[in-house]
Amino acid sequence: xxxxxxxxxxxxxxxxxxxxxxxxxxxxxxxxxxxxxxxxxxxxxxxxxxxxxxxxxxxxxxxxxxxxxxxxxxxxxxxxxxxxxxxxxxxxxxxxxxxxxxxxxxxxxxxxxxxxxxxxxxxxxxxxxxxxxxxxxxxxxxxxxxxxxxxxxxxxxxxxxxxxxxxxxxxxxxxxxxxxxxxxxxxxxxxxxxxxxxxxxxxxxxxxxxxxxxxxxxxxxxxxxxxxxxxxxxxxxxxxxxxxxxxxxxxxxxxxxxxxxxxxxxxxxxxxxxx
Length: 275
What we know:
By secondary structure, the chain is mainly alpha-helical. The chain has helices at about 1-25, 25-30, 30-55, 70-95, 115-140, 145-155, 200-225, 235-255, and strands at about 165, 170-175. The protein has a domain at about 65-95 and about 110-260. It contains eight helices and two strands; from the N terminus they run ααααααββαα. The radius of gyration is 23 Å and the shape is elongated.
């Protein structure tokens, strides 16, 4: 019962908090970065409640169909929180800064601010990466790995072999409760599910830097302006860095990593590839 109503409660709390902040703007007008932090925290809680309601885990919203914590879903969730929290906070700021309209004048809308093309491009890149990932992995489901690789991966991860499912050459878990945050940094194939994927670590770190930088830009804007006509602009270099990071991540994901031939434990030349 609690899971059923928790998300709805958080939605009403988010709406009510917006109204309360505008009503008490004399105080919150001097603490606008704090509003952004509150909005972002409530959005994270809302996402966690949805994940808990569906998968019985707060991280359920960033878990994929293979019962693994997904890096692409994590990135999409991160951008969603940062951008929506920024839009909500700017809308509140502009609402509080509005002056009564004179007779016959056109009243400005609190949502009448610009969302830069670069920000839309960043959201598009993140969305495209999340959509492309399962399509790429689906191309690897037609060929099964050698059974020795399945047992070796189970041993490396220290998990029972029956909790490991191979969807072709792709690694999956049988139970959502076994999903680990370390999945974001491990390979996707059966042969690499226990090893570090450097392309994922690179993309994770770049994502944190970009999200953090943009969040700081929003907070500086909130401090410096009473009425905000535009969200912070993203530089072309920012978009290029994001594009290269996502491109290399998807390219490496598309490469076959599992060995379909028998694994010879005595001959290292026939063992699974090692990064």
